[in-house]
Amino acid sequence: MADRTTSAGVPEGEHRPGTLARRVKDKVAARARMRRQPPPPWRQGNHFRLLNDGREFFPRMLAAIDAAREYVLLEMYLVESGRVMDRFIHALGQAAARGVRVCALFDGFGALGLKPSDRRRLLDAGVQVCWYNALGWRKRLANLIRNHRKLLVVDGRTAFVGGAGLTDEFDDPVPDGRPWREVMVEIEGPVVGDWVSLFSETWRHSGGAPLSVSVADPRTDKRGAEGRVVYSAGWHRSILADSVIEQMENARTRVYVVSAYFVPSRRFRKTLRRAVRRGVDVRVLAPGPVTDHPLVRHAGRRFFGKLLRNGVRIFEYQPRVLHAKLVICDDWVSVGSANLDRWNFKWNLEANQEIRGRAFADAAAAMFERDCADSVELESRAWARRPWSDRLREAWARWVDRLLETWRRPPVR
Fold it and tell me: Is the pLDDT of residue 412 over 90?
Protein backbone atom coordinates (compact mmCIF):
# COMPACT_ATOMS: atom_id res chain seq x y z
CA MET A 1 0.00 0.00 0.00
CA ALA A 2 1.33 3.45 -0.88
CA ASP A 3 2.43 5.76 1.92
CA ARG A 4 -0.26 8.20 2.98
CA THR A 5 0.79 11.83 2.58
CA THR A 6 -0.77 15.24 3.01
CA SER A 7 -1.17 17.69 0.16
CA ALA A 8 2.17 19.20 1.19
CA GLY A 9 3.96 15.89 0.67
CA VAL A 10 4.49 15.25 4.40
CA PRO A 11 3.57 11.75 5.65
CA GLU A 12 0.14 11.76 7.23
CA GLY A 13 0.37 12.03 11.02
CA GLU A 14 3.87 13.51 10.91
CA HIS A 15 3.79 17.23 11.68
CA ARG A 16 6.39 19.75 10.63
CA PRO A 17 6.49 23.54 10.83
CA GLY A 18 4.94 25.58 8.03
CA THR A 19 6.43 28.62 6.36
CA LEU A 20 9.57 30.37 7.55
CA ALA A 21 7.54 33.47 8.43
CA ARG A 22 5.19 31.42 10.58
CA ARG A 23 8.06 29.65 12.35
CA VAL A 24 9.86 32.91 13.13
CA LYS A 25 6.65 34.51 14.38
CA ASP A 26 5.87 31.52 16.61
CA LYS A 27 9.39 31.46 18.10
CA VAL A 28 9.35 35.17 18.90
CA ALA A 29 5.90 34.90 20.48
CA ALA A 30 6.96 31.85 22.52
CA ARG A 31 10.03 33.60 23.91
CA ALA A 32 8.00 36.67 24.85
CA ARG A 33 5.44 34.53 26.68
CA MET A 34 8.02 32.50 28.55
CA ARG A 35 9.89 35.62 29.66
CA ARG A 36 6.64 37.06 31.02
CA GLN A 37 5.37 33.87 32.63
CA PRO A 38 6.41 32.93 36.16
CA PRO A 39 7.03 29.25 36.85
CA PRO A 40 3.94 27.14 37.58
CA PRO A 41 2.88 27.37 41.23
CA TRP A 42 3.39 24.74 43.88
CA ARG A 43 0.42 22.39 43.88
CA GLN A 44 -0.67 20.33 46.86
CA GLY A 45 -2.08 16.84 47.10
CA ASN A 46 0.11 14.92 44.66
CA HIS A 47 1.46 11.39 44.86
CA PHE A 48 4.99 10.59 43.70
CA ARG A 49 6.69 7.23 43.27
CA LEU A 50 10.45 6.96 42.73
CA LEU A 51 11.28 4.29 40.14
CA ASN A 52 14.75 2.73 39.96
CA ASP A 53 16.14 1.60 36.61
CA GLY A 54 14.37 0.29 33.54
CA ARG A 55 13.17 -2.89 35.24
CA GLU A 56 10.84 -0.68 37.33
CA PHE A 57 9.87 2.27 35.16
CA PHE A 58 9.44 0.69 31.69
CA PRO A 59 6.74 -1.81 32.80
CA ARG A 60 4.81 0.92 34.62
CA MET A 61 5.02 3.31 31.66
CA LEU A 62 3.80 0.61 29.27
CA ALA A 63 0.97 -0.36 31.65
CA ALA A 64 -0.15 3.27 31.80
CA ILE A 65 -0.24 3.46 27.98
CA ASP A 66 -2.23 0.20 27.86
CA ALA A 67 -4.79 1.74 30.24
CA ALA A 68 -5.13 5.03 28.29
CA ARG A 69 -8.64 6.04 27.27
CA GLU A 70 -8.28 9.63 25.97
CA TYR A 71 -4.72 10.59 25.07
CA VAL A 72 -1.04 9.75 25.41
CA LEU A 73 1.64 12.47 25.23
CA LEU A 74 5.22 11.25 24.80
CA GLU A 75 8.24 13.60 24.70
CA MET A 76 11.68 12.00 24.43
CA TYR A 77 15.23 12.98 23.55
CA LEU A 78 17.02 9.64 23.16
CA VAL A 79 15.02 7.24 20.97
CA GLU A 80 16.56 4.24 19.23
CA SER A 81 15.27 1.15 17.46
CA GLY A 82 15.55 -1.99 19.55
CA ARG A 83 13.72 -4.13 22.10
CA VAL A 84 12.51 -1.22 24.22
CA MET A 85 11.27 0.80 21.27
CA ASP A 86 9.49 -2.23 19.83
CA ARG A 87 7.50 -2.55 23.05
CA PHE A 88 6.58 1.13 23.02
CA ILE A 89 5.63 1.15 19.32
CA HIS A 90 3.31 -1.79 19.98
CA ALA A 91 1.73 -0.14 23.04
CA LEU A 92 1.30 3.23 21.32
CA GLY A 93 -0.19 1.58 18.24
CA GLN A 94 -2.64 -0.42 20.34
CA ALA A 95 -3.72 2.76 22.11
CA ALA A 96 -4.26 4.57 18.79
CA ALA A 97 -6.32 1.60 17.55
CA ARG A 98 -8.63 2.05 20.56
CA GLY A 99 -9.29 5.65 19.49
CA VAL A 100 -6.81 7.23 21.90
CA ARG A 101 -5.02 10.31 20.56
CA VAL A 102 -1.32 9.52 20.66
CA CYS A 103 1.22 12.34 20.21
CA ALA A 104 4.96 11.62 20.13
CA LEU A 105 7.48 14.46 20.16
CA PHE A 106 11.03 13.33 19.42
CA ASP A 107 14.22 15.36 19.21
CA GLY A 108 15.65 15.67 15.70
CA PHE A 109 19.12 14.59 16.84
CA GLY A 110 18.40 12.32 19.79
CA ALA A 111 16.08 10.16 17.65
CA LEU A 112 18.52 9.61 14.77
CA GLY A 113 18.81 6.01 15.91
CA LEU A 114 15.12 5.36 15.14
CA LYS A 115 15.04 3.44 11.87
CA PRO A 116 12.85 4.67 8.98
CA SER A 117 10.87 1.42 9.20
CA ASP A 118 10.03 2.11 12.86
CA ARG A 119 9.06 5.68 12.04
CA ARG A 120 6.68 4.30 9.42
CA ARG A 121 5.29 1.78 11.91
CA LEU A 122 4.36 4.63 14.24
CA LEU A 123 2.66 6.62 11.48
CA ASP A 124 0.83 3.61 10.06
CA ALA A 125 -0.47 2.84 13.56
CA GLY A 126 -2.03 6.29 13.80
CA VAL A 127 0.54 7.94 16.07
CA GLN A 128 1.03 11.66 15.43
CA VAL A 129 4.77 12.35 15.35
CA CYS A 130 6.62 15.68 15.58
CA TRP A 131 10.37 16.32 15.38
CA TYR A 132 11.96 19.06 17.43
CA ASN A 133 14.56 21.06 15.46
CA ALA A 134 15.31 18.56 12.70
CA LEU A 135 18.94 18.75 11.62
CA GLY A 136 19.87 20.89 8.61
CA TRP A 137 23.22 22.11 7.29
CA ARG A 138 21.87 25.65 6.85
CA LYS A 139 21.14 25.85 10.59
CA ARG A 140 24.81 25.63 11.58
CA LEU A 141 25.10 26.15 15.36
CA ALA A 142 21.31 26.04 15.72
CA ASN A 143 21.65 22.28 15.23
CA LEU A 144 23.04 22.16 18.77
CA ILE A 145 19.73 23.35 20.28
CA ARG A 146 18.04 20.20 21.50
CA ASN A 147 14.93 19.09 23.36
CA HIS A 148 16.39 17.04 26.20
CA ARG A 149 13.13 16.55 28.11
CA LYS A 150 11.75 13.09 28.96
CA LEU A 151 8.03 12.92 29.64
CA LEU A 152 5.04 10.61 29.35
CA VAL A 153 1.52 11.81 30.22
CA VAL A 154 -1.57 9.58 30.08
CA ASP A 155 -5.11 11.01 30.20
CA GLY A 156 -3.99 13.98 32.31
CA ARG A 157 -3.97 11.68 35.34
CA THR A 158 -0.53 10.06 35.35
CA ALA A 159 2.87 11.33 34.27
CA PHE A 160 6.39 9.92 34.20
CA VAL A 161 9.39 12.26 34.33
CA GLY A 162 13.12 11.59 34.58
CA GLY A 163 16.26 11.05 32.56
CA ALA A 164 15.61 7.81 30.66
CA GLY A 165 15.49 7.34 26.92
CA LEU A 166 13.70 4.71 24.86
CA THR A 167 16.84 2.69 24.16
CA ASP A 168 18.07 -0.75 25.09
CA GLU A 169 20.85 0.71 27.30
CA PHE A 170 18.22 1.25 30.02
CA ASP A 171 16.68 -2.21 29.63
CA ASP A 172 17.28 -5.10 31.99
CA PRO A 173 18.84 -7.40 31.04
CA VAL A 174 21.24 -5.89 28.56
CA PRO A 175 23.95 -7.89 26.71
CA ASP A 176 26.71 -6.96 29.18
CA GLY A 177 24.40 -7.29 32.20
CA ARG A 178 24.88 -3.64 33.23
CA PRO A 179 21.95 -1.40 32.29
CA TRP A 180 22.50 2.32 32.69
CA ARG A 181 21.71 3.67 36.17
CA GLU A 182 18.59 5.81 35.91
CA VAL A 183 15.60 7.04 37.89
CA MET A 184 12.14 8.21 36.90
CA VAL A 185 9.30 9.53 39.01
CA GLU A 186 5.66 8.52 38.55
CA ILE A 187 3.25 11.38 39.25
CA GLU A 188 -0.44 11.56 40.05
CA GLY A 189 -2.31 14.68 41.11
CA PRO A 190 -2.93 18.30 40.13
CA VAL A 191 0.67 18.93 39.01
CA VAL A 192 0.12 16.62 36.01
CA GLY A 193 -1.87 19.43 34.40
CA ASP A 194 1.26 21.59 34.30
CA TRP A 195 3.13 18.84 32.43
CA VAL A 196 0.29 18.75 29.88
CA SER A 197 0.61 22.52 29.40
CA LEU A 198 4.39 22.35 28.97
CA PHE A 199 4.12 19.54 26.43
CA SER A 200 1.38 21.36 24.52
CA GLU A 201 3.55 24.48 24.15
CA THR A 202 6.53 22.56 22.76
CA TRP A 203 4.29 20.40 20.56
CA ARG A 204 2.70 23.43 18.97
CA HIS A 205 6.02 25.13 18.28
CA SER A 206 7.32 21.93 16.73
CA GLY A 207 4.51 22.07 14.16
CA GLY A 208 1.98 19.79 15.86
CA ALA A 209 -1.75 20.23 15.46
CA PRO A 210 -3.29 22.11 18.41
CA LEU A 211 -4.06 19.94 21.43
CA SER A 212 -7.44 20.13 23.07
CA VAL A 213 -7.20 17.64 25.89
CA SER A 214 -8.83 17.33 29.27
CA VAL A 215 -7.01 17.19 32.58
CA ALA A 216 -8.11 15.10 35.53
CA ASP A 217 -10.11 16.65 38.37
CA PRO A 218 -7.67 18.99 40.21
CA ARG A 219 -9.06 18.18 43.65
CA THR A 220 -6.20 17.51 46.02
CA ASP A 221 -5.47 14.76 48.49
CA LYS A 222 -4.53 16.30 51.83
CA ARG A 223 -2.20 13.37 52.45
CA GLY A 224 -0.28 14.07 49.26
CA ALA A 225 2.93 16.01 48.71
CA GLU A 226 3.55 19.39 47.15
CA GLY A 227 4.90 19.48 43.62
CA ARG A 228 5.97 22.03 41.02
CA VAL A 229 7.12 21.84 37.40
CA VAL A 230 10.28 23.80 36.55
CA TYR A 231 11.88 24.09 33.15
CA SER A 232 14.69 25.56 31.13
CA ALA A 233 14.30 26.76 27.55
CA GLY A 234 17.83 27.97 26.81
CA TRP A 235 17.09 31.47 25.57
CA HIS A 236 16.59 33.14 28.94
CA ARG A 237 17.67 32.69 32.56
CA SER A 238 16.75 29.20 33.68
CA ILE A 239 13.91 28.91 36.18
CA LEU A 240 15.15 25.38 36.88
CA ALA A 241 18.74 26.42 37.65
CA ASP A 242 17.62 29.37 39.79
CA SER A 243 15.36 27.09 41.83
CA VAL A 244 18.16 24.58 42.52
CA ILE A 245 20.53 27.35 43.61
CA GLU A 246 17.88 28.85 45.89
CA GLN A 247 17.22 25.51 47.59
CA MET A 248 20.94 24.91 48.09
CA GLU A 249 21.38 28.35 49.59
CA ASN A 250 18.59 27.67 52.09
CA ALA A 251 19.53 24.06 52.94
CA ARG A 252 20.25 23.34 56.61
CA THR A 253 21.04 19.62 56.83
CA ARG A 254 21.82 17.99 53.45
CA VAL A 255 22.55 18.75 49.80
CA TYR A 256 22.90 15.61 47.68
CA VAL A 257 23.56 15.93 43.94
CA VAL A 258 23.43 13.16 41.34
CA SER A 259 24.64 14.31 37.92
CA ALA A 260 25.41 12.18 34.89
CA TYR A 261 27.56 14.95 33.39
CA PHE A 262 28.87 17.05 36.25
CA VAL A 263 30.41 20.22 34.78
CA PRO A 264 29.12 22.81 37.28
CA SER A 265 29.12 26.55 36.71
CA ARG A 266 31.07 28.94 38.96
CA ARG A 267 27.81 29.95 40.63
CA PHE A 268 26.93 26.33 41.33
CA ARG A 269 30.37 25.49 42.74
CA LYS A 270 30.36 28.54 44.99
CA THR A 271 26.92 27.60 46.33
CA LEU A 272 28.14 24.10 47.22
CA ARG A 273 31.18 25.47 49.09
CA ARG A 274 29.08 27.98 51.01
CA ALA A 275 26.67 25.22 52.08
CA VAL A 276 29.59 23.27 53.58
CA ARG A 277 30.66 26.33 55.56
CA ARG A 278 27.15 26.49 57.05
CA GLY A 279 27.57 22.93 58.33
CA VAL A 280 25.46 21.25 55.62
CA ASP A 281 26.29 17.69 54.54
CA VAL A 282 27.17 18.23 50.86
CA ARG A 283 27.77 15.23 48.62
CA VAL A 284 28.07 14.80 44.86
CA LEU A 285 27.62 11.51 43.02
CA ALA A 286 29.41 11.75 39.67
CA PRO A 287 30.23 9.24 36.90
CA GLY A 288 33.11 6.84 37.39
CA PRO A 289 35.32 5.21 34.77
CA VAL A 290 32.30 3.49 33.14
CA THR A 291 30.79 6.41 31.22
CA ASP A 292 29.38 7.15 27.79
CA HIS A 293 31.14 10.57 27.63
CA PRO A 294 34.73 10.39 28.98
CA LEU A 295 35.60 13.91 27.80
CA VAL A 296 32.70 15.40 29.77
CA ARG A 297 33.76 13.42 32.83
CA HIS A 298 37.28 14.89 32.69
CA ALA A 299 35.88 18.39 32.06
CA GLY A 300 34.05 18.15 35.39
CA ARG A 301 36.90 16.50 37.31
CA ARG A 302 39.07 19.58 36.92
CA PHE A 303 36.86 21.27 39.55
CA PHE A 304 37.15 18.46 42.10
CA GLY A 305 40.32 19.67 43.83
CA LYS A 306 38.89 22.93 45.16
CA LEU A 307 35.55 21.33 46.04
CA LEU A 308 37.30 18.58 48.01
CA ARG A 309 39.54 21.06 49.84
CA ASN A 310 36.42 22.97 50.88
CA GLY A 311 34.70 19.91 52.34
CA VAL A 312 32.43 18.76 49.51
CA ARG A 313 32.29 14.96 49.50
CA ILE A 314 32.56 13.51 45.98
CA PHE A 315 31.75 9.94 45.01
CA GLU A 316 32.44 8.33 41.64
CA TYR A 317 29.94 5.64 40.70
CA GLN A 318 31.62 2.37 39.71
CA PRO A 319 29.33 -0.47 38.57
CA ARG A 320 27.83 0.97 35.34
CA VAL A 321 27.01 4.12 33.40
CA LEU A 322 25.46 6.74 35.68
CA HIS A 323 22.70 8.59 33.80
CA ALA A 324 20.45 9.78 36.64
CA LYS A 325 19.77 13.44 37.46
CA LEU A 326 18.64 14.22 41.01
CA VAL A 327 19.08 16.90 43.68
CA ILE A 328 18.03 16.62 47.33
CA CYS A 329 18.06 19.64 49.67
CA ASP A 330 16.64 18.82 53.11
CA ASP A 331 13.03 17.72 52.33
CA TRP A 332 13.02 19.08 48.75
CA VAL A 333 13.81 16.94 45.69
CA SER A 334 14.27 17.79 42.01
CA VAL A 335 14.31 14.97 39.46
CA GLY A 336 14.10 15.14 35.69
CA SER A 337 16.17 15.67 32.56
CA ALA A 338 18.59 18.43 33.66
CA ASN A 339 22.25 17.60 34.33
CA LEU A 340 22.85 20.99 35.99
CA ASP A 341 25.74 21.86 33.71
CA ARG A 342 26.26 25.02 31.67
CA TRP A 343 25.74 23.35 28.31
CA ASN A 344 22.31 22.04 29.29
CA PHE A 345 20.99 25.40 30.37
CA LYS A 346 22.44 27.24 27.38
CA TRP A 347 21.41 24.89 24.57
CA ASN A 348 18.72 22.48 25.76
CA LEU A 349 15.07 22.36 26.67
CA GLU A 350 14.99 20.75 30.11
CA ALA A 351 12.29 20.04 32.69
CA ASN A 352 12.26 18.71 36.25
CA GLN A 353 9.68 17.75 38.81
CA GLU A 354 10.19 19.41 42.20
CA ILE A 355 8.76 17.67 45.26
CA ARG A 356 8.38 18.89 48.84
CA GLY A 357 7.77 16.10 51.31
CA ARG A 358 9.76 14.34 54.01
CA ALA A 359 8.79 10.80 53.00
CA PHE A 360 9.80 11.17 49.36
CA ALA A 361 13.00 13.04 50.22
CA ASP A 362 14.02 10.32 52.69
CA ALA A 363 13.33 7.61 50.09
CA ALA A 364 15.44 9.49 47.54
CA ALA A 365 18.22 9.99 50.12
CA ALA A 366 18.23 6.26 50.95
CA MET A 367 18.62 5.48 47.25
CA PHE A 368 21.44 8.04 47.03
CA GLU A 369 23.28 6.45 49.94
CA ARG A 370 22.98 2.99 48.38
CA ASP A 371 24.55 4.35 45.20
CA CYS A 372 27.32 5.99 47.22
CA ALA A 373 28.04 2.58 48.75
CA ASP A 374 28.70 1.34 45.19
CA SER A 375 31.07 4.24 44.56
CA VAL A 376 34.61 5.33 45.38
CA GLU A 377 34.84 8.39 47.63
CA LEU A 378 37.61 10.76 46.58
CA GLU A 379 40.00 12.14 49.20
CA SER A 380 41.65 15.54 48.90
CA ARG A 381 45.25 14.44 49.55
CA ALA A 382 45.01 11.44 47.24
CA TRP A 383 43.43 13.65 44.58
CA ALA A 384 46.43 15.98 44.70
CA ARG A 385 48.64 12.97 43.88
CA ARG A 386 46.58 11.71 40.92
CA PRO A 387 48.53 10.66 37.79
CA TRP A 388 49.73 13.20 35.26
CA SER A 389 47.79 11.32 32.59
CA ASP A 390 44.57 12.31 34.37
CA ARG A 391 45.74 15.92 34.61
CA LEU A 392 46.46 16.01 30.88
CA ARG A 393 42.99 14.68 30.08
CA GLU A 394 41.48 17.34 32.34
CA ALA A 395 43.55 20.06 30.66
CA TRP A 396 42.40 18.93 27.22
CA ALA A 397 38.77 18.76 28.39
CA ARG A 398 39.10 22.24 29.94
CA TRP A 399 40.30 23.66 26.62
CA VAL A 400 37.36 22.09 24.75
CA ASP A 401 34.89 23.27 27.40
CA ARG A 402 36.13 26.85 27.24
CA LEU A 403 35.99 26.81 23.45
CA LEU A 404 32.37 25.66 23.53
CA GLU A 405 31.56 28.41 26.02
CA THR A 406 32.51 30.99 23.39
CA TRP A 407 29.85 29.72 20.99
CA ARG A 408 26.77 31.92 20.98
CA ARG A 409 23.39 30.25 20.96
CA PRO A 410 21.44 31.21 17.80
CA PRO A 411 17.65 31.02 17.52
CA VAL A 412 16.00 27.93 16.08
CA ARG A 413 14.90 28.71 12.53
Answer: no
